[in-house]
Design goal:
By secondary structure, the chain is of the alpha+beta class. The chain contains 3 helices and 10 strands. The protein has helices at 2-18, 44-55, 151-158; strands at 23-29, 32-38, 62-68, 72-79, 105-108, 121-124, 143-149, 162-165, 169-173, 178-185.
Length: 190
């Protein structure tokens, strides 16, 4: 009995020691600041991918190029002139991680190929359970964090006037919403 209890305690301690710490990110935009907490424990590959883009300053100067009120705001791929920035290779879809596409969550944007996400992301403006695993295509969209401060900024972005602008068609902000700078910030002291 003592061996079983000791094994359980050691197992719990190992699990706690191996749990990845959340990563906090500050996203400065032309509409205000958004603070995100990324869940490196449940979405390790996705968070590592996003952090690598932050460290490379990939997002600085890009826009939220697709905005749909009551659905989501999408960015991370195009600048103000709609030039696409080069990306790293796509990552494995981690949508099976149990995190949900709820209001304020951040998830990876992708094509119809479930494993095509690279740098583009979206912040859910509403609960979008239809995007959760297994979704309509057997995969879903991988959530990897949430907004902890600045949901008012997300709401403000979601309310901007959009129109049909080439090459995207509709849902493009008429006045570009620029991501001016993204940085990793320290967690507040407890």
């Amino acid at each position: 009995m003592k061996k079983i209890l000791l094994s359980l305690i050691l197992g719990l301690n190992m699990t706690l020691a191996n749990a990845a710490e959340p990563v906090r990110v500050l996203m400065e935009t032309s509409q205000g600041n958004i603070t995100l907490e990324l869940n490196a424990d449940k979405a390790p590959k996705t968070v590592a991918n996003f952090v690598s883009y932050v460290k490379a300053k990939h997002f600085d100067g890009l826009t939220f190029h697709r905005v749909i009120r009551g659905f989501m705001i999408q960015g991370g791929g195009y600048d103000e002139k709609y030039n696409q920035r080069a990306t790293q290779k796509p990552i494995e879809n981690e949508a099976k991680n149990g995190l949900k596409n709820v209001r304020g969550s951040i998830a990876m944007a992708r094509t119809s190929d479930p494993h095509s996400a690279s740098s583009q992301f979206f912040i859910n403006h509403a609960d979008n359970s239809n995007l959760d695993f297994p979704s309509f295509d057997g995969w879903g969209y991988a959530v990897f964090g949430q907004v902890t401060e600045g949901m008012d900024v997300v709401d403000k972005i979601a309310e901007v006037k959009t129109g049909n602008i080439a090459p995207f068609g509709r849902d493009v902000p008429v006045t570009p919403i620029v991501i001016t700078h993204v940085t990793i910030i320290e967690a507040p002291k407890k």
